[in-house]
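Kindly inspect what follows.
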Amino acid sequence: MRKSIENKFNELEAAKKQNATLSRLVILFSFLTILAVLYWGWNVTNAAYNKILVIDRSGEYLKVITENREKLFVSLVKTTCSQLTHYANSFDRNNIEDNQAKALFLCSKESLTPVFALYRDEKSYHEAMERGVIYRTEIEDVSHIGDQEPFQVKFTSVLSIIDNNGITKFRIYSEGELVKTTPTYPNNNTGLFFKSYRQAIRNIE
């Protein structure tokens, strides 16, 4: 009788220990499951943040990308400088007036008047019309961009004058003050405008 009671008691103790072990395993499993769900939710949220879709007025989906504002601004400044120096200093017999008009969307008329007057006084427009001389200007380097508006900008460009005798090159040294404005397509895509601009042309030795 005593031995039977002891056996039942031992069985009860063993069952209690087994239940305690199972309870610990269930708690541990639940804890690990919760951690896994939280990690999965974090990954989903983080991935979704970079894949947010926005619908514009035309109904198209636009991917929202977190841009580095500083790099974006520098890119816009370089684009504006490139467009201005090209339109103000590039022309042939077919696009003198068109390029002048495009330049005026990027820079004040007061600043561009001396630039156009120089080419007129030097008979450059006449040579383009009568002799087919081509003036082609490409930006070379943007050396300085200010950190507050109006943004002080300095840059250089290379002017190539192409005629029957070959190609003559000049370097254009430019500086001016940029301000923000409302972008307009296709005349001013960057939303930047030179409220003042000056340039000097030097021979390239």
